[in-house]
Task: inverse folding
């Protein structure tokens, strides 16, 4: 998903200013023939978006006549320059992908290497330690932390790492070394099993890279305990990005009945129970996920009702049985992974939201989520509007939720803001 992000603390690195008129700042340095990294030159007028802070370079922006992209090894470090040869940044390249280069450093004296990764990880850690008292969070969020293609989730004394690109994998040993230096973890697990790695020409694998890592780890969130399957669960095992939205839910569930659709291992359900819900029903199509859901319920003194079923089928069955819930949470996987999937994905979100509205009791609360970047917030608002009109219900949106603060947004990279969680009251028209 993320991989949301230019200084790799998420800020644009200040440029040194010359003391006399005519001095060049660092971004205007002309590349010289002694540079140890091959040049990747942009076409004319293609640097504007990059100078504004974005980190991605697309293959159609490269002057391939001057700097043949196809001759470069995937993951190799390049010196990115303007059409006139001015230094822009160091990046890593992959000629086989649409995003053919991703920026690592905008300062000519800050070449990619061990020191750069230590600096980035140290900055990311400082932010999370300001935000959270307990060591359970996303430590590195790709582009937003200046490390495009890298995800690191922290589970106490253990780290789970995802390397999504050939460039980041090329620096794998330096990254692991920096993580060991800054955090001294008991173990680091590589969850390099995302399908996106195949587009980068990388193998998919899961392996322990440092120390020992159990298949399951325990975390704390909002005063609740969760057992997380880090070796075989979705993504890195847990979705830290919804933590603040789950905390908001707690204040809405006292003495209410709750339906959690696409429940995974019970993050929403357990927080609803902590808020005093009197009945909680979970739906997921994974028996393994539901087994963790039940275990996490029990670990927090809750008895959860679970149903292994397709979300649409289960909700239709509940409607036929005339079951009603005071609160319905729908947090599905991404329906729109590519822009061309928008129409099909919109239809899926509308169907899911209409089913949810049908199941709500009078003055019920709907929490409608989408983690699809290519399905922006206004599209989700449109789905809710249309669902209300179609069913003759009034929908009031009283809170707009986004990804948690350990998933920071880079202001120049809209792709780093992907999560939408809309809290709605649904009333009779």
Result:
């Amino acid at each position: 998903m993320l991989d949301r992000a230019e200084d790799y603390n998420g800020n644009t690195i200040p440029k040194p200013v010359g003391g006399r008129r005519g001095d060049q700042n660092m971004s205007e340095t002309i590349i010289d023939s002694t540079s140890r990294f091959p040049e990747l030159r942009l076409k004319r007028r293609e640097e504007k978006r990059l100078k504004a802070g974005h980190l991605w370079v697309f293959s159609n922006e490269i002057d391939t006549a001057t700097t043949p992209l196809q001759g470069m090894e995937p993951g190799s470090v390049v010196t990115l320059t303007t059409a006139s040869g001015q230094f822009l940044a160091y990046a890593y390249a992959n000629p086989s992908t649409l995003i053919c280069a991703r920026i690592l450093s905008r300062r000519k004296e800050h070449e990619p290497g061990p020191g750069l990764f230590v600096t980035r990880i140290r900055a990311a850690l400082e932010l999370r330690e300001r935000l959270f008292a307990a060591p359970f969070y996303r430590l590195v969020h790709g582009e937003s932390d200046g490390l495009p293609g890298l995800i690191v989730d922290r589970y106490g004394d253990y780290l789970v790492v995802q390397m999504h690109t050939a460039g980041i994998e090329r620096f794998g040993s330096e990254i692991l070394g920096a993580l060991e230096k800054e955090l001294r973890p008991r173990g680091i697990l590589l969850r390099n099993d995302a399908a996106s790695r195949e587009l980068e020409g990388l193998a998919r694998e899961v392996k322990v890279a440092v120390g020992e890592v159990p298949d399951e780890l325990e975390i704390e969130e909002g005063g609740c305990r969760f057992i997380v399957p880090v070796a075989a669960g979705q993504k890195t095992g847990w979705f830290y990005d919804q933590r603040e939205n789950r905390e908001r839910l707690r204040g809405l569930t006292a003495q209410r009945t709750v339906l959690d659709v696409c429940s995974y291992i019970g993050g929403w359900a357990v927080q609803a129970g902590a808020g005093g819900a009197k009945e909680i029903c979970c739906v997921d199509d994974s028996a393994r996920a539901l087994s963790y859901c039940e275990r996490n319920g029990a670990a927090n003194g809750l008895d959860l009702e679970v149903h292994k079923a397709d979300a649409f089928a289960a909700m239709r069955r509940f409607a036929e049985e005339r079951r009603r819930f005071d609160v319905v949470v729908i947090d599905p996987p991404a329906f729109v992974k590519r822009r061309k999937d928008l129409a099909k994905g919109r239809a899926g979100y509308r169907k899911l939201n209409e089913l949810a509205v049908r199941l709500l009791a009078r003055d019920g609360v709907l929490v409608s989520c989408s983690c699809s970047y290519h399905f922006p917030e206004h599209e989700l608002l449109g789905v809710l509007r249309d669902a209300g009109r179609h069913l003759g219900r009034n929908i009031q949106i009283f809170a707009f939720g986004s990804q948690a603060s350990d998933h920071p947004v880079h202001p120049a990279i809209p792709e780093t803001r992907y999560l939408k969680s809309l809290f709605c009251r649904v009333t009779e028209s």
